[in-house]
Structures are given as structure tokens and as C-alpha cells.
Specification:
By secondary structure, the protein is of the alpha/beta class. The chain is 37% helix and 22% strand. It has 22 helices and 19 strands. Strand 9 and strand 10 form a beta hairpin. The chain is globular, with a radius of gyration of 26 Å.
């Protein structure tokens, strides 16, 4: 007789009897499965429910971590389960063994789904269980075409042919549907095909920004992948203006205005997910430059356990976030992942008992259960005025996108002093430099010392491709630098130290890196640090006191990622600086 799912999860230590009973009541109210109830109430993760269901049914659990959810290309697996069927049903072929097709699915009890997979593949199925989010992520990488979509369209453009118009496929809610455009079969103008192909390839390569610009004798098309710009096949000069006009039309910008910068945005539907494209057009001496920022919500996993925190850092940050009132500041340059971190923290603490409100410019990640407001300075909705109105909305937690001026800083302080938890960001080089910056904005020392809960800073390092990274014995200068800056206690055996470096393989497009991870410094404001802030706010004294308590700075956190084989020495050193 099978154990009940709740019993398995209690035995695993993921939930207790009280949470199970609440979930059972919620299940009856919502008419859903117990696993769904546990996830919706945030008592358990989708991964934990999947693992428990696998134990209950005697079906193996597949994930990237246990290396099972890792189908190899070149085996012809895509012939058995086509990409469209895989996406529509959240299934992925894994391997073939003994004339059986191993397939990861989300619900092994769905007999109709298993029958459909048998019908499509023509093989007997050996099911594995996984989560929908993990399966869809693997589908993106597994079915990614080897040949460039941009190159395919460029080849056709160079072959010539008349330019003809084509009607866009627009969804009922006004989004451009890229799934309906088939490269090589559409009769649309080449400029439209090229824009679509560039967006498709950029999304498949995990691009954050697309740069298109003309120079005197050439055209440059670059994609920013994991923080680094890479050249791609450039379109013909004659098509660039038409391509920029195409993007302007989608963004509802003025196509006749070419002398002034313009900003806009539009949304697309691609591979069953909605992606926002933020557009900036800027005039240069050679013509207009186009930058398109891709905001793919489906590629962002708001989980504090996987974004890069060390255990002590995560505990300190969440300890501060659990406080009923106070200030939390996260610092770092533009594009360092501050928004993702803060949203991951909000995603962790949010519950029906908390009223969480955010004030952002712009709102980049939309989240259920949280009231998000976008500032509009043109009509008087600024950070400071919006924050004042928030206080009449009975909030428990407030996220302010960025503190840029004295008025916003004072409004944040007043909100924290009147019983609200306030999270925000600042642009400083390190976490502790936020203290003098806030004092310069007019905050009194004694008020800052008493309301400040936590200061943190972050940077993004590129992750080494796990399939091709190469171990090596570091030279003496790297060993010495590691020993001096890593702040590890106890120190590992330096004679056996092993680091890793990038190589490159087809899986990472020969870049040697795949994805990025955050490195942090997190300082919980202890009584000793409060005394220093109140007395003279000396940054060096604060750093020494934090180090005494075992907190790591950014460079030390970076060395830990190097030691763990997450990133390379070169990449870590390029984004961190030593403490003065």
C-alpha cells in the first residue's frame, strides 16, 4: 500500500503536521491536488512535491542536479518527441534503453498523457518525474537549432527577391506572436524576417540585450550574453533603416523622428511564454543605434537558494527580511542583478498575511500576490510621492526600486520608523559605502543606526560550463592572492588547491561559460556596528567589525565561487575590487 504524499513529505522533514492539515483544508476549498495546495501555500517547493510523488509511485525523479534531466543531442531523440509536442505537454525525451524511451513528465499518473507520448513516439515509455519549470528550461536548450536563424534569413536576403508586405500575427491581447512566423516560408519583407530571426536567436542564446548600429563602412549586430557582447552575422546596410523602423512601429514610436532619442517597449509571445522587449533608439553620427533589452520572465527563477548566496549570507538577509520594520539596502552597479535578488527575497517572504507593495522604474519582473507600481515622473508619480501614498495603503513590506535623492531617502526612513519593512537599492561600490551615502543625503546618524537592518552588495560572475571546464593547479601568485583575500577559516590545504578555467564546447556555444551567478557581501547590522554608525560612521571600522563577526566581503565570496568551480579566477577578478 502506497504512503500518502503528505506522510512522505513529513518523514522527509519538508513539512510538519500543522502545515499538512492547513494544506488539506486549502485543498478542499480550492478543489486541487494536495501537492498544488502545498506549493500555493508556500509550505513546499515544486521540486519537493515532485520528489515525494516519485517516492510514492516508485518513479525516479529527474533534475539537472542529479544529471538525469540532461538529454544528449545527436541521438535523434527529437525525432521521437517533436518540439511542439514537448512544449505543449511539458515532456522531454531523456534516452533510449532496451527499446524503451525514457521521458520526463510532470504527472506520471496521467494515463492519457502517457498514451499520447506512446502514440507520438511509437515506443514504450519509461516515465521519470520532474517539475514543469525544469522541463521547459531543458526544452529550450535541447531543441535549440544548431544553425543560426539570422544566417538562414540573411542567405535568403542575399539571394534577392521582391520586398512584399505581410500582416503581423497579433494575439488577442496585443502581443506579436513569433511562434506563427516560420523562417523561410513567410512572404513578408526581409527586414521583418530579420527582426524576427534576431529576436528568436537572441532568446535561444539567453541574450539580455541586442545592439544594432551602423558605422561608416560596416554594420554591427551584437548580443550581450552573460554580460559580454558577442558579434553575430550583420544584416546588409540597406536593410538597417527598415529594421529599425519595424521595431519603432512595434514599440509605437515615431518612425519619422530620427534626430532625438526615443524609448518604448512591446511584448511578444514565443514558445508559450510572454517576453517583454524594451527599446531604446539613439541618433549617432552614422545613423540611429538600436538597443533592445529582453526581459524574459520565464528565464528568471526567483529562488534565494540558487541565485548565489552562501548559507550565512542567505540566513542574514532573510533574518533581516523577517523583521517587522527597518531598512534593507542592496547596492551594486546597473545590471548586477539587484532587482532579481530583491524579488527573490520578496517571493520567499510573501504570504496572504503580508501586504507587499513595490514602487519601481520600470517594473521588470511581475509577481502574483504583490502590488507593483511603476513611477511616472511626467505626471508627478515619483519615488517619494508614491512612497507617501503607499503609507495610506496599509503595507507591511515596501520595495522602493532605487534611492536617488534626499526626498526618497527621507521617505524610506520615515516608512521604516513607522512600522514598515523597506527594501531598496543604492549605487555604491560596496555595501558599507551606503552608510556615508545616506548620511550625505541628510539622514541623521542616530536614526540610521537604529533603523538599518542589513546592508548588502552584489556582482554577477559568469558560470563555467560544467561539461567542458578544465581543472588546473593554480600558479603561486594566485595561491598567495587566494590565501590573503579568501577569509576562509580554516584555510584549505594550499598544496592541493585546484581551480577551473574555461575551455568551450558545443553545449556552451564554445564560450566556456553558461549562465551567471551572483556573489554577495551581506552585513547584518549588529549592536557593535550600530555603535560605529552612531559615533563616526567610519567605513573601515565597520568593515573590520563585520569581518570579526565572520562576514565575507565581495572578493572573499568570489574566491569561494572559484574554489567551488563555479567561475574562473579571471572572471571573478574582473567584477570585484579589493577592500581599501
Amino acid at each position: 500500500m502506497h504512503k500518502r504524499l503528505g506522510e512522505i513529505m513529513i518523514q522527509a522533514g519538508w513539512i510538519d503536521e500543522e502545515k499538512l492539515n492547513k494544506a488539506l483544508k486549502f485543498q478542499l476549498q480550492q478543489a486541487c491536488l494536495i501537492g498544488e495546495a502545498l506549493v500555493k501555500l508556500r509550505y513546499a517547493t515544486e521540486e519537493q512535491v515532485a520528489m515525494a510523488l516519485g517516492k510514492q509511485l516508485g518513479i525516479p525523479y529527474a533534475s539537472k542536479e542529479n544529471q538525469i534531466l540532461n538529454p544528449e543531442k545527436g541521438q535523434g531523440l527529437e525525432k521521437f518527441i517533436p518540439e511542439k509536442f514537448a512544449r505543449d505537454n511539458a515532456v522531454i525525451p531523456l534516452f533510449i534503453e532496451n527499446n524503451m524511451l525514457a521521458t520526463a513528465i510532470t504527472d506520471p499518473t496521467n494515463i492519457m498523457m502517457l498514451d499520447n507520448i506512446k502514440l507520438v513516439s511509437g515506443m514504450e515509455i519509461q516515465p521519470f518525474i520532474s517539475t514543469k519549470a525544469q522541463i521547459l528550461k531543458v526544452i529550450d536548450s535541447f531543441y535549440q537549432g544548431q544553425s543560426s536563424l539570422i544566417d538562414k534569413v540573411l542567405d535568403k536576403a542575399l539571394e534577392g527577391g521582391a520586398e512584399t508586405s505581410d500582416n503581423d500575427v497579433i494575439t488577442p491581447d496585443g502581443k506579436l506572436d513569433l511562434d506563427k512566423v516560420i523562417i523561410g516560408e513567410s512572404k513578408g519583407a526581409q527586414s521583418i524576417k530579420l527582426v524576427n530571426a534576431i529576436m528568436k536567436q537572441a532568446i535561444s542564446e539567453r541574450t539580455s540585450d541586442i545592439h544594432l548600429e551602423k558605422f561608416d563602412e560596416k554594420v554591427s549586430l551584437r548580443l550581450r550574453i552573460d554580460g559580454v557582447l558577442y558579434e553575430r552575422s550583420a544584416p546588409p546596410t540597406a536593410l538597417v533603416d527598415a529594421m529599425i523602423s519595424r521595431v519603432k512601429i512595434l514599440s509605437k514610436l515615431d518612425i519619422s523622428e530620427r534626430r532625438l532619442p526615443q524609448d518604448g517597449s512591446f511584448s511578444i509571445k514565443y514558445q508559450n511564454r510572454v517576453i517583454e522587449i524594451r527599446v531604446s533608439v539613439c541618433p549617432t553620427v552614422f545613423g540611429e543605434k538600436l538597443v533592445m533589452r529582453i526581459l524574459d520572465r520565464g528565464s528568471v527563477e526567483l529562488n534565494v537558494k540558487i541565485i548565489g548566496f552562501e548559507q550565512r549570507q542567505m540566513d542574514d538577509f532573510l533574518k533581516a527580511a523577517a523583521a517587522p520594520n527597518g531598512l534593507i539596502f542592496l547596492t551594486g552597479p546597473t545590471g548586477s542583478g539587484k532587482t532579481t535578488t530583491l524579488n527573490a527575497v520578496l517571493n520567499t517572504i510573501k504570504s496572504p498575511e503580508l501586504n507587499i507593495m513595490t514602487l519601481e522604474d520600470p517594473v521588470e519582473i511581475k509577481m502574483e500576490g504583490i502590488s507593483q507600481v511603476q513611477v511616472k515622473p511626467a505626471i508627478g508619480l515619483t519615488m517619494a510621492s508614491g512612497l507617501r501614498s503607499f503609507l495610506r495603503q496599509d503595507p507591511d513590506v515596501i520595495l522602493v526600486g532605487e534611492v536617488r535623492d534626499n526626498e526618497t531617502a527621507e521617505a524610506c526612513l520615515k516608512a521604516a520608523m513607522t512600522g514598515h519593512l523597506v527594501l531598496s537599492t543604492l549605487h555604491t561600490n560596496s555595501a558599507l559605502e551606503a552608510v556615508p551615502r545616506l548620511l550625505d543625503m541628510g539622514i541623521e546618524k542616530y536614526l540610521l543606526a537604529s533603523t538599518l537592518l542589513c546592508l548588502a552588495a552584489q556582482r554577477l560572475v559568469r558560470q563555467l560550463c560544467p561539461l567542458c571546464k578544465v581543472p588546473y593547479r593554480p600558479p603561486q601568485d594566485e595561491i598567495d592572492q587566494f590565501a590573503a583575500e579568501s577569509m576562509l577559516n580554516p584555510m584549505p590545504d594550499l598544496t592541493r588547491l585546484t581551480f577551473f578555467k574555461a575551455k568551450g564546447c558545443p553545449q556552451c556555444n564554445n564560450m566556456g561559460y553558461k549562465g551567471r551567478k551572483a556573489i554577495y557581501e551581506v552585513y547584518f547590522n549588529t549592536d557593535a556596528m550600530k555603535h560605529i554608525i552612531y559615533k563616526d560612521a567610519d567605513v573601515q571600522k565597520l568593515a573590520l567589525e563585520a569581518a570579526k563577526g565572520g562576514a565575507w566581503n565581495l572578493r572573499a565570496s568570489g574566491w569561494h565561487k572559484v574554489l567551488a568551480g563555479v567561475t574562473s579566477v579571471e572572471d571573478m577578478l574582473s567584477v570585484t575590487v579589493t577592500e581599501r
